Protein backbone atom coordinates (compact mmCIF):
# COMPACT_ATOMS: atom_id res chain seq x y z
CA UNK A 1 0.00 0.00 0.00
CA UNK A 2 1.29 3.45 -0.82
CA UNK A 3 1.92 5.19 2.50
CA UNK A 4 1.50 8.76 3.69
CA UNK A 5 4.23 10.33 5.83
CA UNK A 6 2.06 12.02 8.46
CA UNK A 7 -0.32 9.94 10.56
CA UNK A 8 -2.42 13.09 11.17
CA UNK A 9 -3.64 13.15 7.59
CA UNK A 10 -7.37 13.02 6.90
CA UNK A 11 -8.46 10.39 4.38
CA UNK A 12 -11.94 10.14 2.88
CA UNK A 13 -12.69 6.54 1.91
CA UNK A 14 -15.28 5.68 -0.73
CA UNK A 15 -17.31 2.99 1.06
CA UNK A 16 -19.72 1.10 -1.19
CA UNK A 17 -20.86 -1.39 1.44
CA UNK A 18 -18.61 -4.09 0.00
CA UNK A 19 -15.78 -5.93 1.69
CA UNK A 20 -12.96 -4.33 -0.32
CA UNK A 21 -13.69 -0.69 0.52
CA UNK A 22 -14.46 -1.63 4.13
CA UNK A 23 -11.06 -3.30 4.54
CA UNK A 24 -9.41 -0.30 2.87
CA UNK A 25 -10.93 1.91 5.58
CA UNK A 26 -9.95 -0.55 8.31
CA UNK A 27 -6.31 -0.68 7.22
CA UNK A 28 -6.05 3.10 7.20
CA UNK A 29 -7.74 3.41 10.59
CA UNK A 30 -5.36 0.80 12.00
CA UNK A 31 -2.39 2.90 10.84
CA UNK A 32 -3.69 5.88 12.77
CA UNK A 33 -5.11 8.08 10.03
CA UNK A 34 -8.18 10.24 10.51
CA UNK A 35 -10.61 8.22 8.39
CA UNK A 36 -13.98 9.43 7.12
CA UNK A 37 -16.21 7.06 5.17
CA UNK A 38 -18.35 8.31 2.30
CA UNK A 39 -21.20 6.44 0.66
CA UNK A 40 -22.09 7.81 -2.76
CA UNK A 41 -25.75 7.43 -3.60
CA UNK A 42 -25.92 6.33 -7.25
CA UNK A 43 -28.50 6.74 -9.95
CA UNK A 44 -30.40 3.59 -10.78
CA UNK A 45 -32.85 2.91 -13.62
CA UNK A 46 -36.55 3.17 -12.85
CA UNK A 47 -38.28 -0.02 -11.80
CA UNK A 48 -40.47 0.12 -14.88
CA UNK A 49 -37.48 -0.72 -17.09
CA UNK A 50 -37.74 -4.45 -16.62
CA UNK A 51 -39.55 -6.70 -14.17
CA UNK A 52 -37.02 -9.44 -14.88
CA UNK A 53 -34.19 -7.01 -14.15
CA UNK A 54 -35.69 -6.24 -10.74
CA UNK A 55 -36.25 -9.91 -9.92
CA UNK A 56 -32.74 -10.94 -11.03
CA UNK A 57 -31.07 -8.02 -9.26
CA UNK A 58 -32.75 -8.81 -5.96
CA UNK A 59 -31.85 -12.48 -6.24
CA UNK A 60 -28.21 -11.89 -7.16
CA UNK A 61 -27.26 -8.99 -4.92
CA UNK A 62 -29.85 -7.99 -2.46
CA UNK A 63 -32.87 -9.96 -1.29
CA UNK A 64 -33.92 -6.93 0.79
CA UNK A 65 -33.91 -4.47 -2.12
CA UNK A 66 -36.94 -2.22 -2.26
CA UNK A 67 -38.90 -0.34 -4.90
CA UNK A 68 -39.13 3.30 -3.84
CA UNK A 69 -40.76 5.98 -6.02
CA UNK A 70 -40.30 3.78 -9.09
CA UNK A 71 -36.63 3.19 -8.38
CA UNK A 72 -34.94 -0.14 -7.70
CA UNK A 73 -33.11 0.62 -4.45
CA UNK A 74 -30.12 -1.70 -4.54
CA UNK A 75 -28.14 1.15 -3.00
CA UNK A 76 -30.25 1.21 0.18
CA UNK A 77 -28.97 -2.11 1.52
CA UNK A 78 -25.44 -1.27 0.35
CA UNK A 79 -25.59 1.93 2.39
CA UNK A 80 -26.74 -0.02 5.46
CA UNK A 81 -23.79 -2.39 4.99
CA UNK A 82 -21.44 0.58 4.79
CA UNK A 83 -22.98 2.06 7.94
CA UNK A 84 -22.48 -1.19 9.85
CA UNK A 85 -18.84 -1.41 8.74
CA UNK A 86 -18.24 2.23 9.73
CA UNK A 87 -19.82 1.59 13.15
CA UNK A 88 -17.47 -1.34 13.80
CA UNK A 89 -14.48 0.80 12.79
CA UNK A 90 -15.78 3.75 14.82
CA UNK A 91 -15.53 6.19 11.93
CA UNK A 92 -18.12 8.64 10.60
CA UNK A 93 -20.00 7.77 7.40
CA UNK A 94 -21.25 10.55 5.15
CA UNK A 95 -23.79 10.07 2.37
CA UNK A 96 -23.29 12.15 -0.76
CA UNK A 97 -26.08 12.10 -3.33
CA UNK A 98 -24.46 11.90 -6.78
CA UNK A 99 -27.51 10.37 -8.47
CA UNK A 100 -28.18 13.29 -10.84
CA UNK A 101 -24.54 13.54 -11.83
CA UNK A 102 -24.27 9.80 -12.34
CA UNK A 103 -27.36 9.80 -14.57
CA UNK A 104 -25.88 12.62 -16.67
CA UNK A 105 -22.24 11.53 -16.86
CA UNK A 106 -22.58 7.74 -16.92
CA UNK A 107 -26.16 6.72 -17.69
CA UNK A 108 -26.68 9.18 -20.55
CA UNK A 109 -23.22 8.35 -21.88
CA UNK A 110 -24.16 4.65 -22.07
CA UNK A 111 -27.34 5.39 -23.99
CA UNK A 112 -25.59 7.84 -26.31
CA UNK A 113 -22.85 5.37 -27.19
CA UNK A 114 -25.24 2.50 -27.92
CA UNK A 115 -27.35 4.81 -30.06
CA UNK A 116 -24.22 5.65 -32.06
CA UNK A 117 -23.49 1.95 -32.58
CA UNK A 118 -20.59 1.75 -30.14
CA UNK A 119 -20.18 -0.32 -26.97
CA UNK A 120 -19.50 1.92 -23.96
CA UNK A 121 -17.49 1.16 -20.84
CA UNK A 122 -19.52 2.65 -17.96
CA UNK A 123 -17.04 1.52 -15.30
CA UNK A 124 -14.31 3.65 -16.87
CA UNK A 125 -16.63 6.65 -17.03
CA UNK A 126 -17.81 6.04 -13.45
CA UNK A 127 -14.23 6.20 -12.21
CA UNK A 128 -13.41 9.25 -14.31
CA UNK A 129 -16.47 11.35 -13.54
CA UNK A 130 -17.69 10.13 -10.16
CA UNK A 131 -15.04 8.50 -7.96
CA UNK A 132 -11.98 10.42 -9.13
CA UNK A 133 -13.96 13.42 -10.34
CA UNK A 134 -16.82 14.55 -8.09
CA UNK A 135 -15.80 12.53 -5.04
CA UNK A 136 -12.15 13.59 -5.15
CA UNK A 137 -12.93 17.27 -5.68
CA UNK A 138 -15.54 17.45 -2.94
CA UNK A 139 -13.39 15.51 -0.47
CA UNK A 140 -10.47 17.88 -0.98
CA UNK A 141 -12.79 20.86 -0.70
CA UNK A 142 -14.09 19.58 2.64
CA UNK A 143 -10.60 19.19 4.07
CA UNK A 144 -9.38 15.73 3.04
CA UNK A 145 -5.69 15.26 2.33
CA UNK A 146 -6.32 12.08 0.37
CA UNK A 147 -9.08 9.83 -0.87
CA UNK A 148 -8.94 6.04 -0.80
CA UNK A 149 -10.90 3.37 -2.62
CA UNK A 150 -11.13 -0.42 -2.60
CA UNK A 151 -9.68 -0.81 -6.09
CA UNK A 152 -7.26 -3.67 -6.67
CA UNK A 153 -4.33 -1.63 -7.96
CA UNK A 154 -1.01 -0.40 -6.58
CA UNK A 155 0.36 3.14 -6.51
CA UNK A 156 4.10 3.60 -6.13
CA UNK A 157 6.26 6.74 -5.98
CA UNK A 158 8.36 7.55 -8.99
CA UNK A 159 11.53 9.57 -8.71
CA UNK A 160 13.58 11.35 -11.39
CA UNK A 161 16.53 9.40 -12.74
CA UNK A 162 18.98 12.09 -11.69
CA UNK A 163 18.61 15.36 -9.81
CA UNK A 164 20.23 17.57 -12.46
CA UNK A 165 17.25 16.97 -14.76
CA UNK A 166 15.08 18.85 -12.30
CA UNK A 167 17.62 21.18 -10.75
CA UNK A 168 15.24 24.11 -10.31
CA UNK A 169 12.07 22.25 -9.30
CA UNK A 170 12.69 18.68 -8.18
CA UNK A 171 9.68 16.58 -9.12
CA UNK A 172 8.24 13.28 -8.11
CA UNK A 173 5.36 11.35 -9.58
CA UNK A 174 3.48 8.11 -9.22
CA UNK A 175 3.37 4.82 -11.07
CA UNK A 176 0.07 2.96 -11.21
CA UNK A 177 0.75 -0.79 -11.13
CA UNK A 178 -1.40 -3.87 -11.55
CA UNK A 179 -2.57 -5.46 -8.31
CA UNK A 180 -0.81 -8.41 -6.74
CA UNK A 181 -4.04 -10.37 -7.31
CA UNK A 182 -4.10 -10.55 -11.11
CA UNK A 183 -7.58 -12.12 -11.04
CA UNK A 184 -8.96 -9.00 -9.34
CA UNK A 185 -6.72 -6.34 -10.89
CA UNK A 186 -8.78 -3.25 -11.81
CA UNK A 187 -6.11 -1.08 -13.41
CA UNK A 188 -7.90 -1.46 -16.78
CA UNK A 189 -10.67 0.84 -15.54
CA UNK A 190 -8.33 3.59 -14.28
CA UNK A 191 -6.55 4.71 -17.46
CA UNK A 192 -8.18 8.16 -17.36
CA UNK A 193 -6.38 9.13 -14.14
CA UNK A 194 -3.70 11.81 -14.17
CA UNK A 195 -0.72 12.63 -11.96
CA UNK A 196 -2.72 15.56 -10.53
CA UNK A 197 -5.33 13.08 -9.28
CA UNK A 198 -2.98 10.28 -8.27
CA UNK A 199 -1.10 12.48 -5.81
CA UNK A 200 -4.29 12.57 -3.73
CA UNK A 201 -5.14 8.85 -4.02
CA UNK A 202 -4.53 5.77 -1.89
CA UNK A 203 -5.27 2.14 -2.79
CA UNK A 204 -4.80 0.17 0.45
CA UNK A 205 -5.70 -3.34 -0.76
CA UNK A 206 -3.68 -3.52 -3.98
CA UNK A 207 -0.91 -5.50 -2.28
CA UNK A 208 -3.28 -8.27 -1.16
CA UNK A 209 -5.14 -11.13 -2.83
CA UNK A 210 -8.90 -11.41 -2.34
CA UNK A 211 -8.82 -14.33 0.17
CA UNK A 212 -6.46 -12.25 2.35
CA UNK A 213 -8.84 -9.30 2.17
CA UNK A 214 -11.74 -11.46 3.33
CA UNK A 215 -9.65 -12.88 6.19
CA UNK A 216 -8.72 -9.37 7.29
CA UNK A 217 -12.36 -8.30 7.11
CA UNK A 218 -13.32 -11.14 9.44
CA UNK A 219 -10.43 -10.31 11.79
CA UNK A 220 -11.53 -6.66 11.89
CA UNK A 221 -15.04 -7.86 12.79
CA UNK A 222 -16.63 -6.40 9.69
CA UNK A 223 -20.18 -7.74 9.23
CA UNK A 224 -19.82 -7.77 5.43
CA UNK A 225 -16.73 -10.03 5.39
CA UNK A 226 -18.60 -12.74 3.46
CA UNK A 227 -20.67 -10.44 1.23
CA UNK A 228 -20.60 -11.43 -2.44
CA UNK A 229 -18.76 -9.22 -4.90
CA UNK A 230 -20.98 -6.79 -6.78
CA UNK A 231 -21.89 -7.68 -10.34
CA UNK A 232 -22.95 -5.75 -13.42
CA UNK A 233 -22.67 -2.09 -14.34
CA UNK A 234 -20.79 0.21 -11.98
CA UNK A 235 -23.12 1.43 -9.21
CA UNK A 236 -26.23 0.09 -10.98
CA UNK A 237 -25.75 -3.60 -10.33
CA UNK A 238 -26.99 -6.47 -12.50
CA UNK A 239 -28.55 -5.03 -15.63
CA UNK A 240 -30.24 -6.62 -18.61
CA UNK A 241 -28.67 -4.18 -21.04
CA UNK A 242 -31.09 -4.88 -23.86
CA UNK A 243 -34.12 -4.37 -21.63
CA UNK A 244 -32.56 -1.21 -20.21
CA UNK A 245 -31.88 0.24 -23.67
CA UNK A 246 -35.38 -0.49 -24.94
CA UNK A 247 -36.71 2.31 -22.75
CA UNK A 248 -34.48 4.81 -24.55
CA UNK A 249 -34.00 3.29 -28.01
CA UNK A 250 -37.13 1.99 -29.71
CA UNK A 251 -36.93 -1.60 -31.04
CA UNK A 252 -36.86 -1.94 -34.82
CA UNK A 253 -36.86 -5.24 -36.67
CA UNK A 254 -33.96 -5.83 -39.03
CA UNK A 255 -32.08 -8.51 -40.92
CA UNK A 256 -29.21 -10.73 -39.82
CA UNK A 257 -26.94 -11.39 -42.81
CA UNK A 258 -23.99 -13.75 -43.09
CA UNK A 259 -20.69 -13.15 -44.92
CA UNK A 260 -22.11 -14.49 -48.17
CA UNK A 261 -24.94 -11.97 -48.10
CA UNK A 262 -27.66 -14.46 -47.16
CA UNK A 263 -30.39 -13.38 -44.76
CA UNK A 264 -30.33 -16.00 -42.00
CA UNK A 265 -32.30 -14.36 -39.21
CA UNK A 266 -34.00 -11.34 -37.70
CA UNK A 267 -33.14 -8.99 -34.86
CA UNK A 268 -35.03 -6.22 -33.05
CA UNK A 269 -32.51 -3.40 -33.30
CA UNK A 270 -28.87 -3.17 -34.37
CA UNK A 271 -28.24 -0.72 -31.50
CA UNK A 272 -28.64 -3.49 -28.94
CA UNK A 273 -25.83 -5.70 -30.19
CA UNK A 274 -22.08 -5.48 -29.80
CA UNK A 275 -19.15 -6.80 -31.83
CA UNK A 276 -18.32 -10.36 -30.81
CA UNK A 277 -21.77 -11.02 -29.34
CA UNK A 278 -22.99 -14.58 -29.72
CA UNK A 279 -26.12 -14.93 -27.59
CA UNK A 280 -29.44 -13.28 -28.36
CA UNK A 281 -29.29 -13.84 -32.12
CA UNK A 282 -32.42 -15.34 -33.68
CA UNK A 283 -30.73 -17.71 -36.13
CA UNK A 284 -32.19 -21.16 -36.73
CA UNK A 285 -30.21 -22.60 -39.66
CA UNK A 286 -28.32 -24.96 -37.39
CA UNK A 287 -24.90 -23.93 -38.69
CA UNK A 288 -23.76 -21.81 -35.77
CA UNK A 289 -22.39 -20.59 -33.58
CA UNK A 290 -22.47 -17.15 -35.18
CA UNK A 291 -20.96 -13.93 -33.86
CA UNK A 292 -21.70 -10.29 -34.64
CA UNK A 293 -18.82 -9.10 -36.85
CA UNK A 294 -20.23 -5.77 -38.10
CA UNK A 295 -23.30 -3.51 -38.01
CA UNK A 296 -24.95 -1.06 -40.39
CA UNK A 297 -27.05 1.30 -38.27
CA UNK A 298 -28.56 3.23 -41.16
CA UNK A 299 -29.93 0.05 -42.76
CA UNK A 300 -30.43 -1.63 -39.36
CA UNK A 301 -28.48 -4.72 -40.44
CA UNK A 302 -26.35 -7.05 -38.33
CA UNK A 303 -23.61 -9.03 -40.09
CA UNK A 304 -22.51 -12.29 -38.57
CA UNK A 305 -19.69 -14.75 -39.12
CA UNK A 306 -17.62 -17.38 -37.38
CA UNK A 307 -15.20 -16.81 -34.54
CA UNK A 308 -12.23 -16.57 -36.94
CA UNK A 309 -13.93 -13.63 -38.67
CA UNK A 310 -13.58 -11.49 -35.54
CA UNK A 311 -9.80 -11.16 -35.63
CA UNK A 312 -7.86 -8.12 -36.84
CA UNK A 313 -4.37 -6.69 -36.34
CA UNK A 314 -5.22 -2.99 -36.61
CA UNK A 315 -7.26 -0.45 -34.69
CA UNK A 316 -7.36 3.28 -34.06
CA UNK A 317 -7.53 4.88 -30.61
CA UNK A 318 -8.68 8.41 -29.79
CA UNK A 319 -8.91 10.50 -26.63
CA UNK A 320 -5.61 9.12 -25.35
CA UNK A 321 -4.66 9.93 -21.76
CA UNK A 322 -1.22 9.23 -20.33
CA UNK A 323 -1.18 8.28 -16.67
CA UNK A 324 2.59 8.41 -16.96
CA UNK A 325 3.87 11.28 -19.11
CA UNK A 326 7.22 9.63 -19.85
CA UNK A 327 5.88 7.76 -22.89
CA UNK A 328 7.06 9.06 -26.26
CA UNK A 329 5.43 8.06 -29.54
CA UNK A 330 5.78 6.04 -31.65
CA UNK A 331 6.40 3.18 -29.25
CA UNK A 332 5.99 -0.55 -28.74
CA UNK A 333 3.50 -1.15 -25.98
CA UNK A 334 1.36 -3.83 -24.33
CA UNK A 335 -2.37 -3.33 -24.88
CA UNK A 336 -5.55 -4.74 -23.35
CA UNK A 337 -8.68 -4.27 -25.48
CA UNK A 338 -11.02 -5.81 -22.86
CA UNK A 339 -10.97 -6.11 -19.09
CA UNK A 340 -10.32 -9.85 -18.98
CA UNK A 341 -8.21 -9.92 -22.12
CA UNK A 342 -4.53 -10.78 -22.12
CA UNK A 343 -2.13 -7.94 -22.86
CA UNK A 344 -0.88 -8.07 -26.44
CA UNK A 345 2.12 -6.28 -27.95
CA UNK A 346 1.41 -3.55 -30.50
CA UNK A 347 3.05 -0.56 -32.14
CA UNK A 348 1.34 2.74 -31.31
CA UNK A 349 1.80 5.67 -33.70
CA UNK A 350 1.60 9.39 -32.95
CA UNK A 351 -1.83 9.46 -34.61
CA UNK A 352 -3.22 6.72 -32.38
CA UNK A 353 -2.92 3.84 -34.84
CA UNK A 354 -2.41 0.45 -33.23
CA UNK A 355 -0.84 -2.42 -35.12
CA UNK A 356 -0.70 -5.66 -33.16
CA UNK A 357 1.98 -8.29 -33.52
CA UNK A 358 -0.70 -10.95 -34.02
CA UNK A 359 -4.44 -10.90 -34.81
CA UNK A 360 -6.68 -9.83 -31.90
CA UNK A 361 -10.23 -11.03 -31.36
CA UNK A 362 -13.29 -8.76 -31.22
CA UNK A 363 -11.77 -5.30 -31.06
CA UNK A 364 -14.89 -3.27 -30.31
CA UNK A 365 -15.54 0.44 -31.06
CA UNK A 366 -16.35 2.36 -27.88
CA UNK A 367 -14.38 0.07 -25.59
CA UNK A 368 -11.08 1.01 -23.95
CA UNK A 369 -7.62 0.15 -25.24
CA UNK A 370 -5.41 0.30 -22.16
CA UNK A 371 -1.63 0.61 -22.35
CA UNK A 372 0.93 -1.10 -20.14
CA UNK A 373 4.69 -1.27 -19.75
CA UNK A 374 5.16 -4.50 -17.85
CA UNK A 375 2.99 -4.20 -14.74
CA UNK A 376 2.65 -0.45 -15.03
CA UNK A 377 -0.51 1.16 -16.40
CA UNK A 378 0.71 4.07 -18.52
CA UNK A 379 -2.45 5.24 -20.29
CA UNK A 380 -5.28 4.37 -22.60
CA UNK A 381 -7.88 5.59 -25.04
CA UNK A 382 -11.16 4.79 -26.78
CA UNK A 383 -11.24 2.38 -29.72
CA UNK A 384 -12.72 4.02 -32.83
From TrEMBL:
Region annotated Interaction with tRNA, chain positions: 184-186, 338-339
Annotated site residue numbers, Interaction with tRNA: 151, 367
GO process terms (BP): tRNA wobble position uridine thiolation
InterPro entries membership: MnmA-like, MnmA-like_C, MnmA-like_central, MnmA-like_central_sf, Rossmann-like_a/b/a_fold
GO CC entries: cytoplasm
Catalytic activity reported: S-sulfanyl-L-cysteinyl-[protein] + uridine(34) in tRNA + AH2 + ATP = 2-thiouridine(34) in tRNA + L-cysteinyl-[protein] + A + AMP + diphosphate + H(+)
Residues that coordinate or bind ATP: 14-21, 40, 150
Keywords: ATP-binding, Cytoplasm, Disulfide bond, Nucleotide-binding, RNA-binding, Transferase, tRNA processing, tRNA-binding
Entry's localization field: Cytoplasm
Chain segments carrying region Interaction with target base in tRNA: 121-123
Gene3D superfamilies: Adenine nucleotide alpha hydrolases-like domains, HUPs, Translation factors
Family (UniProt): Belongs to the MnmA/TRMU family.
Name the record gives this protein: tRNA-specific 2-thiouridylase MnmA
Organism per entry: Candidatus Yanofskybacteria bacterium RIFCSPLOWO2_01_FULL_44_22
Amino acid sequence: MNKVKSQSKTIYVAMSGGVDSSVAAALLKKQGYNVVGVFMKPWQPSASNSKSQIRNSKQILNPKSEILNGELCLWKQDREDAMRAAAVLDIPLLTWDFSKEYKKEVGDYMIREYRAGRTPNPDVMCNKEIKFGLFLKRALREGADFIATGHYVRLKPQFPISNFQFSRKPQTGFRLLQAIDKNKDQSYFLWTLTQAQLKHCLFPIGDYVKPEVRKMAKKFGLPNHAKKDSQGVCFIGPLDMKEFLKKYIRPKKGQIIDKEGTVIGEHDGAFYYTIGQRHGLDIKNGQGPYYVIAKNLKKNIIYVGKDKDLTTKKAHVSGINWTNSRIKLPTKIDVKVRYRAKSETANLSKRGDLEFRKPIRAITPGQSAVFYKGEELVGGGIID
